[in-house]
Automatic annotation (TrEMBL):
Residues 403-540 form the GGDEF domain. GO terms for cellular component: membrane. The chain crosses the membrane at residues 6-26. PANTHER family: BIOFILM ARCHITECTURE MAINTENANCE PROTEIN MBAA, DIGUANYLATE CYCLASE DGCP. This is EAL domain-containing protein. The modification 4-aspartylphosphate is found at residue 867. Residues 317-371 form the PAC domain. GO terms for biological process: cellular response to nitric oxide; phosphorelay signal transduction system. Residues 197-249 form the HAMP domain.
């Protein structure tokens, strides 16, 4: 029964008991009151009776009779009491109602009561029935005794007023009592309700919380009053609930799956699974609770691990096993299970807890690891380690059977270029394709392996399928070269890849696996040096070379320390003026034993070994320092170009190195030019563009070296903040003999000019090359024809001598289109002549328009520069005549600022190509004339074409 019901029953019972007791008490009190009233009335009546007896006994007969009446009247008057005196014969002796006197008491109960009292002298109570006029009266009957205690009469005394007063008083007291009782009952009810609320409500809540906890939810009971027992119980419950919840959470958040199995039921059903279990198996808790504990293995029961688990559960001990389980979708997984018994006391276990973890990935990884330890992930070919194992085995077998083994070391040509230009994804695709081709090119006993990067190794063995004599081997290797070189499509582009192969044979080129591979590698390097896309057999001489390379590394280190490097400078010459307009710094190594070595001997090794970084910094510093020294010595200031290697480009510190070289030397930045090769710049334009921008921000000049040899992306070229392109020596070398080289050179020059870049042709060795380049509007040439790279002092001497190209090869050549200048101001005329002649133009300067017409008639004029204000004829008039007669001539007008109207006129008439305002600024003039010349040549080019 609920506590509240119990409390209600208790309260109701208490209330009933109090009610009954109250009623009894009231009844009793009523009785007592009645009796008290009676005894009071008796006492009063007896007192009257005594007084009356005393008064009447002194009289007799009628006197006595009168005295009775007097006394009755007295009492009635003064005491307001209705009294009646009855004689022993029951006649009324005295009465308030006088006409009753002498009458006998009416028969009835009252008469008997009075008669009895007259007989035995006992006081009695009686009532006089109500009449029409009088209400019922309560009366007490007492005897009246004479001095001898004889009953002489009965005194009937009416005590109704007394009774009424007393009962009114009693009723009031009862009412008050009843009110008190009701108030008490209400209080009791209130207390009961309060108790019910303060006890049963918290208990109900506690029950609810306990049920919640049982359902595995977080539950907390409200603590209304921590000081009472229920509050204490709630507090204890809450801390117990928190502790349980913490454990629950811990179990739910663990990475491993947890299952609790009930041993008390058949099949050991699952009683609890956590979230990790759901994640691992794909089942929800609702789907598995109640299922047998081994349901995860499905029908796959013949597993040693499962037997062990079952045995351990029978024996009530812990166990550990790896089982093959099945997820909800049927996918098998490796399940590492640990089980432990759960005992509530010392008895047998009631439950088992199982921790499960999914080790599928780790297990697969270890299988994969074992595979990866031997095979290359990208291509699936054997890796270095497996190849070395097989090679060792093959050597053992070859020794026993007297067979020959050949190791072919293969390296792709220009793989980096492809990787950098087409992206790593394409690079990977290429490697996979090459791997397949190599695999297809070998026989069953052979092995193809990838050693890493773009290096592959073939192990070729003699056997039933063929011998490995030189002829057979050569044939097979050629087949490999051809197979690799077959065209393929990469990143949407059709490309062809070649490779270089080095060959080393057992037993003659090495007795063990390591040596054979090393020698094949050395031979491969030689194949690369000899032009790539070929193969080389290992020789002792190659071994010697490789040895020398090793030594080179060591001595390069020393060279830096011992200051054995020096710079030579090769002049760059303007094809217009014939004058030196720049220098290229080229590194040389003054070797203590071998003398002066060019970069070909060491620069690629320095690049590979990383030594190029300190060497490159040395070059930058030395070139800046030397250039500043020449400027300080009064030589014409010239920019010096320094070659920047790929490693330097990739170096974060390059900017700081350049800044330091400039700051330490004091050279103005625009006198330093950095030459980056086309392949470096295009390899990773996303890196090279910002790098170039940083360099331009310093103020240095930039050029692209060896242009035309790499894969140039024209959209990037447009983004490069460069100043000039260097036409590669390979085109220049054949420019006079090969139409292709000429066409490419032409295209590069035209494209450069349209991008406002200058073109420097490298490796100009002959006058023919130079003349052709000049004719094709190349700006600058560099090469042995003008000067080989010179040591600093020799170069200084050349500059001091103002050594130039012969005039007939420059813009001043007799057949070069002339520049005609017409100005009546002879001072101005001389100045223009000087400036433009120095720029290499064949200038005709005249002050008279007649002379100008004469020159136009006799010479091929490309550009005409004419003053607007002349006395004989206005510039506008003169130029418009020239336009009609020689439309191909580019006409530039020199105008004063107040010549706006005539300038406008000239432009409207189409008489001028451009005008230039006086005072003329030299740089603007030179640039404008150069642009006009380019336009002239372009127009002529079109005409010729
Ligand atoms: N990273 C650095 N690379 C450098 C540095 N110094 C040089 N180099 C690079 O080495 C390459 C070979 O240089 P070098 O042997 O000095 O050859 C240069 C010239 O001597 C040569 N040249 C010049 N004119 C002619 C010619 O008419 N005919 C002919 N056969 N050769 C000629 O060309 C080389 C200059 O080439 P380039 O740099 O492309 O302008 C060379 O490629 C340098 O890049 C260095 O300090 N750091």
């Amino acid at each position: 029964m609920r506590i509240s019901t119990k409390l209600t029953v208790v309260v109701a019972t208490v209330f009933a008991v109090i009610g009954v007791a109250g009623l009894l008490t009231i009844n009793q009190m009523r009785d007592i009151t009645q009796r008290s009233i009676g005894s009071e009335a008796v006492n009063l009546a007896q007192a009257m009776s005594t007084l009356m007896a005393f008064e009447v006994t002194q009289h007799a007969g009628e006197a006595r009779q009168r005295r009775y009446q007097e006394l009755v009247d007295f009492f009635v008057t003064h005491e307001k009491r209705d009294i009646e005196i009855v004689a022993p014969d029951l006649t009324i002796l005295a009465d308030v109602t006088t006409n009753h006197i002498g009458t006998s008491i009416e028969a009835g109960e009252r008469r008997q009561v009075i008669a009895q009292t007259l007989r035995d002298g006992q006081a009695r109570m009686t009532r006089e029935a109500a009449t029409e006029n009088e209400p019922e009266m309560r009366q007490v009957v007492v005897p009246v005794r004479d001095g001898a205690r004889n009953i002489i009469a009965a005194l009937v005394f009416e005590y109704t007023p007394l009774y009424n007063d007393m009962t009114a008083l009693a009723a009031k007291a009862f009412r008050q009592l009843a009110i008190l009782a009701l108030a008490g009952a209400a209080l009791a009810l209130g207390c009961a309700l309060y108790l019910a609320r303060s006890v049963s409500a918290p208990l109900r809540q506690l029950t609810e919380a306990a049920l919640q906890l049982g359902r595995g939810q977080r539950a907390q009971a409200a603590v209304r009053d921590a000081s009472d027992e229920i509050g204490e119980l709630a507090t204890v419950f809450n801390s117990m609930s928190s502790a349980l919840h913490l454990r629950e959470r811990a179990m739910e958040s663990t990475f491993n799956g947890i299952m609790i199995v009930d041993l008390g039921k058949p099949g050991f059903p699952l009683e609890y699974v956590n979230r990790a279990f759901e994640r691992i198996t794909g089942y929800t808790a609702a789907q598995v609770l109640g299922k047998p504990s081994d349901f995860l293995v499905r029908g796959d029961v013949d597993q040693p691990g499962l037997h062990e688990i079952r045995l351990a559960m029978r024996e009530g001990r812990e166990a550990h096993a790896v089982l093959r389980g099945y997820r909800r979708d049927g996918e098998p997984f490796w399940n590492e299970v640990s089980i432990a018994p759960v005992r509530s006391d010392d008895g047998p276990p009631s439950h088992y807890v199982a921790i499960i973890s999914d080790i599928t990935e780790a297990r697969n990884d270890s299988d994969q690891l074992a595979h990866q330890a031997q095979f290359d992930i990208l291509t699936g070919l054997a890796n270095r380690s497996l190849m070395m194992d097989r090679l060792k085995q093959a050597i053992g077998s070859a020794q026993r059977h007297g067979e020959r083994i050949v190791v072919a070391f293969i390296d792709l040509d220009d793989f980096k270029l492809i990787n950098d230009n087409l992206g790593h994804e394409a690079g990977d695709q290429l490697l996979r394709e090459v791997a397949q081709r190599l695999q297809a090119s070998i026989r069953p006993r052979d092995t193809a392996a990838r050693f890493g990067g773009d290096e592959f190794v073939l192990l070729l063995r003699e056997g039933e399928q063929g011998a490995l004599g030189e002829a057979q081997l050569t044939e097979r290797i050629r087949a490999v070269l051809e197979s690799v070189a077959a065209p393929l499509t990469l990143a949407g582009r059709d490309i062809q890849v070649h490779c270089s192969i080095g060959l080393a044979a057992f037993p003659q080129d090495g007795a063990d696996a390591e040596i054979l591979v090393k020698h094949a590698d050395t031979a491969m390097y030689r194949a690369k040096e000899l032009g790539r896309n070929g193969f080389q057999f290992f020789t002792e001489a190659l071994q010697l070379r490789a040895q020398q390379q090793l030594e080179l590394g060591a001595s390069l280190h020393l060279a830096l320390e011992r200051d054995e490097f020096e710079l030579h400078y090769q002049p760059q010459v303007s094809l217009r003026s014939g004058r030196v307009v720049g220098l290229e710094a080229l590194l040389r190594w003054r070797h203590p034993d071998k003398g002066l070595l060019g970069p070909g001997h060491f620069i690629s090794f320095a690049e590979e070994s990383g030594l190029i970084i300190p060497i490159g910094e040395w070059v930058l510093r030395r070139a800046c320092k030397q250039n500043k020294a020449w400027q300080d010595a009064g030589l014409p200031p010239l920019p010096v170009a320094v070659n920047i290697s790929a490693r330097q480009c990739a170096q974060q510190e390059l900017e700081a190195v350049v800044r330091a070289a400039l700051a330490d030397s004091g050279l103005a930045p625009h006198y330093l030019e950095l030459e980056l090769t086309e392949s470096i710049s295009m390899a990773d334009p996303e890196h090279s563009v910002p790098m170039m921008e940083r360099m331009k921000a310093i103020g240095v000049e930039l050029s692209i070296d060896d242009f035309g040899t790499g894969y140039s992306n024209m959209s990037y070229l447009k983004r490069f903040p460069i100043d000039r392109l260097k036409l590669d020596i390979s085109f220049v070398r054949e420019i006079t003999t090969d139409p292709g080289s000429l066409a490419i050179s032409d295209a590069i020059i035209t494209m450069s000019h349209s991008l406002h870049l200058e073109v420097v042709a490298e490796g100009v060795e002959t006058e023919g090359q130079l003349a052709l380049l000049a004719q094709r509007q190349c700006d600058i040439v560099q090469g042995f024809y003008f000067s080989k790279p010179l040591a600093a002092d020799a170069l200084e001497a050349l500059l001091r001598a103002d050594y130039r190209l012969p005039g007939h090869l420059t813009g001043r050549a007799a057949d070069a289109p002339a520049l005609l200048v017409l100005d009546d101001d002879t001072h101005m005329l001389d100045l223009l002549d000087l400036v433009l002649s120095n720029e290499g133009y064949r200038v005709h300067a005249v002050s008279d328009p007649e002379q100008a017409f004469e020159i136009l008639a006799r010479h091929q004029v490309a550009v005409l520069l004419c003053d607007q204000r002349m006395p004989a004829i206005s510039g506008v008039e003169f130029l418009s005549r020239v336009r009609r007669m020689y439309p191909e001539v580019l006409r530039i007008m020199l105008s004063a600022c107040d010549d706006a109207e005539s300038t406008r006129q000239a432009i409207n008439m189409g008489a001028v190509y451009k005008f230039i305002e006086k005072p003329v600024e030299q740089a603007t003039l030179v640039a404008l004339v150069a642009e006009a010349y380019q336009l002239y040549h372009a127009g002529r080019g079109q005409q010729t074409a």
